[in-house]
Write a structure and sequence with these properties.
Number of helices: 8
Radius of gyration: 27 Å
Oligomer: single chain
Largest sheet: 6 strands, mixed
Length: about 375
């Protein structure tokens, strides 16, 4: 009988090892579900039809509000949709998704995992990011109105108003918030100027000598001398500017609780559709994304893949994407969605007219095919 005694002990050891692995796996699983990760998760966000409405208010006071409102100019019926897309972010500066959520997102085509620093740089709070996004949306809406009206043949001089002065920067103490910058080194900055024109002028001047910045302040014009400083190899004044326009008629954009600059192109298209006869999209369900400048340049945005899936889920069949985002689109186009590359507002309008008229799209620049 004693010859068979060791067998049960071997089984006992194997059972103990098995239980140890099982308990370890359970503990790791619990830790993965509870411990925060150093990442955020991008997901498709809400979709808004720029020629449609948004429900605003709460309870009995809630009502549908038209996103684009025009007064002082004739408007025309619209149809279909010109959707702007958003990206939802799971997590914020202090609350991070769990490792389980991150792992799940890696294997979900419509989601993306990004470092926290991509949205919240070190030392930045959630409130600061929200304020920045809100300011970007306001500036984007103004640029969209300007781009749409300029595309329709209106001439609108632009002023650059100082919205912020960085503490300790070259401009600190010389330029003030609320100043309107009218010239840099004698070159006027009041005709279709944008923030880029000022940055370019400062970069060309360099940091070797003082620059003359002409500002309007309290009804008076004065020249101030500021020597730009180098930051990451670029000459900068250290001011933030907002483009201010004098529009020939009033255009209001009534979108709430959405931030960032990426809706600019779609708002511009929506405005054009509102103030011109016919239906710019031919009554089709069109979506798109892209920043816009007053002169109609369409710029790249973040979260393009999530926006593609958001557009498809909303029922869009056509998607207008910034040309600079096309490399991110390839291989990630949902079924049933035709994606076209655009780099200017003029091109976007022409492409939409081609699609609306039912003409061949063979000559249009496809993105992601």
């Amino acid at each position: 009988m004693t010859l068979f005694a060791p067998a049960p002990r071997r089984r006992s050891r194997a059972r103990t090892v098995g239980w140890a692995f099982l308990i370890g796996a359970v503990v790791l699983g619990l830790l993965a579900s509870l411990l925060p990760s150093p990442y955020l998760i991008e997901v498709p966000g809400p979709v808004y039809n720029t020629i449609g409405t948004q429900k605003q208010g709460t309870g009995k006071d809630a009502k549908d509000v038209k996103l684009i409102q025009v007064s002082g100019h004739e408007t025309y019926p619209t149809a279909g949709a010109l959707d702007m897309l958003t990206v939802g972010i799971q997590g914020d500066a202090t609350n991070r998704p769990s490792w389980t959520s991150v792992i799940r997102a890696i294997f979900t085509r419509s989601q993306a995992v990004i470092p926290v620093e991509a949205i919240y740089p070190s030392g930045t709070t959630t409130e600061q990011v929200n304020e920045r996004d809100s300011a970007d949306m306001q500036a984007s809406q103004q640029s969209a109105v300007a781009a749409a009206l300029i595309q329709q043949g209106n001439d609108m001089p632009t002023e650059l108003e100082v919205s912020a002065v960085q503490q300790g920067s070259a401009a600190d103490g010389a330029i003030e918030k609320g100043d309107v910058i009218t010239a840099f080194d004698g070159k006027p900055l009041t005709t279709n100027a944008d923030a880029g024109s000022l940055r370019e002028a400062v970069a060309q001047h360099g940091t070797a000598s003082p620059a003359t910045v002409t500002v309007e302040r309290d009804g008076a014009t004065k020249d101030v001398r500021v020597t730009p400083r180098s930051e990451q190899g670029t000459a900068l004044l250290g001011v933030g500017v907002t483009e201010r326009y004098e529009f020939p008629f009033k255009v209001s954009i009534r979108l709430q609780d959405v931030g960032g600059p990426s809706a600019g192109m779609m708002f511009a298209l929506g405005i054009i559709d509102e103030i011109t006869p016919g239906k710019l999209n031919g009554g089709k369900h069109v979506a798109g994304t892209g920043t816009i400048t007053a002169d109609g340049e369409v710029g790249p945005i973040g979260g393009i893949r999530q926006k593609l899936y958001g557009a498809a889920d909303a029922g869009a069949t056509v998607f207008l994407a910034p040309a600079d985002n096309c490399d991110e689109v390839v291989g990630h186009v949902p079924d049933g969605l035709d994606v076209y590359s655009v780099s200017t507002l003029d091109q976007a309008v022409t492409d939409l007219q081609t699609i609306a008229d039912g003409k061949s799209t063979a000559k249009l620049a496809r993105c992601g095919s």
